[in-house]
Amino acid sequence: MPTIRRHVLAAALACTAVAGFPAFAQADYPAKPITMVVSYPPGGDTDAIARLFAEKLGQRLKQSVIVDNRPGAGGAIGNGYVGRSQADGYTLLFTPNPFTTAPLVMKLSGAAAYDVLGGYEAVINTATQPLVLVAFAGLGVKTLPDLVAAAKAGKQVSYASPGAGSPMHIAGAWLNKAAGVKFTHVPYRGVGPSVTDVVAGHVDTAWVTVGAVRQYLNTGKLVPLAIADAKRSKLAPQVPTLAELGYADVVVGAWNGFFAPKGTPAPVVKKLNEHLNAILKEPEVVEKLAVFGALPAGGAPEVLTQLNQREYAVMGKAIRDLGISAE
Question: Does the keyword section mention Signal (predicted)?
Fold first, then answer.
């Protein structure tokens, strides 16, 4: 075969191979188990929701999806691990929104360092979780105006959060500034301990997710005072928003979603997104998410990209203005 002809044929075959790669990768993916990294310990809401998605995704993909808990540094250890993983679709990150704010409130380096805006491919925003301010029933307040009035009259009021720099901490600090009060922040290691102590009256109030306190709201052991979302939540429609109570600028939510390492093939991201969108429509999944105080979200990867970017900007400004730090 003449040399020129051989070169032309080789080039044509190479182009065909490159052009056909996305379809091939999408059709054959996944060819082995997928690892779903959760940057928090087993037992919490994030871990439980992740395992729900792992089971459902594994069934649809006909491949094992293994949950790998990598806690530490407020979630940064697991986040950083995924950011440095091979971009082939076999390592995914399931995370709540401290993913976005952790680098803004912590000095991250080494294994904990990661690029929030440029280091990942967004896959899907799976759910949102409204934040609610609850009070110990024995505190004697029924509304947020009651609590603010008591604080301004000299009463010392404390509020718990699941950790310094968390969305709950930000909500509390932001409300302090907006209402002109000084509720004392008491950081805990996770939602569970903070709920236990507010139910027992060891701390006056707490910012938490609705699912974490539903049973105590139903029995009257805790009093709901306000929701931090822009609109009332269907999970607790009787609870007014901070905006309704005169604090229109204080809007802090919680969400979770999937990210993949930067450079993960677009067809793989698309396939994952399509399956997860379908999973979010399953009645069983909607019901189980509600138990955790979560509402299904979904949509294209771009929805999560924009949410992440917007939160980085808005929460970043709030964190700077309020002087919030996890140190």
Answer: yes
CA–CA separation, 217 and 225 (whole Å): 11
Measured between alpha carbons, how far is 183 from 132 in angstroms, rounded to an integer? 16
Q: Is the dihedral of CA 112, 192, 169, 288 positive or negative?
A: positive
- The 10s digit of each residue's pLDDT in 192-232 is 889 999 999 999 999 999 988 999 999 999 999 999 999 99
- Which CATH number fits the domain that encloses residue 50? 3.40.190.150
CA gap 104, 168 in Å, rounded: 15
Name residue, tokens 């709950």.
168
Q: How far apart are CA 246 and CA 232, in angstroms?
A: 14
Please give the helix or strand (H or E) that residue 227 lies within, else none. strand 222-227
Q: Which residue has the tokens 């730090």?
A: 325
Q: If residue 213 lies in a helix (H) or strand (E), which one and from where to where? A: helix 210-219
Structure tokens at 113: 């360092």
Could you give the number of structural domains in the chain? 2
pLDDT, tens only, 126-146: 999 999 999 999 999 999 999
Other Cβ atoms closer than 10 A to 220: 8
- On the 0-12 / 13-18 / 19+ scale of CB atoms within 10 A, 300 is middle
What's the rounded Cα separation, in Å, for the pair 82 and 228?
30
Beta bridge pairs of residue 133: 207, 226
At 26, is the pLDDT very low, low, confident or very high (cuts 50, 70, 90)? low
Please give the C-alpha separations between residue 182 and each of 4, 58, 179, in angstroms, as whole numbers: 80, 48, 9
To the question of pTM greater than 0.70 for the whole model, the response is: yes
CB count, 10 Å around CB of 231? 11
Q: Look up the CATH number of the domain holding residue 215.
A: 3.40.190.10
What's the N-to-C CA distance of the chain in angstroms? 70
Cβ atoms < 10 Å from Cβ of 321: 11
Residue 170 placed within a domain: yes
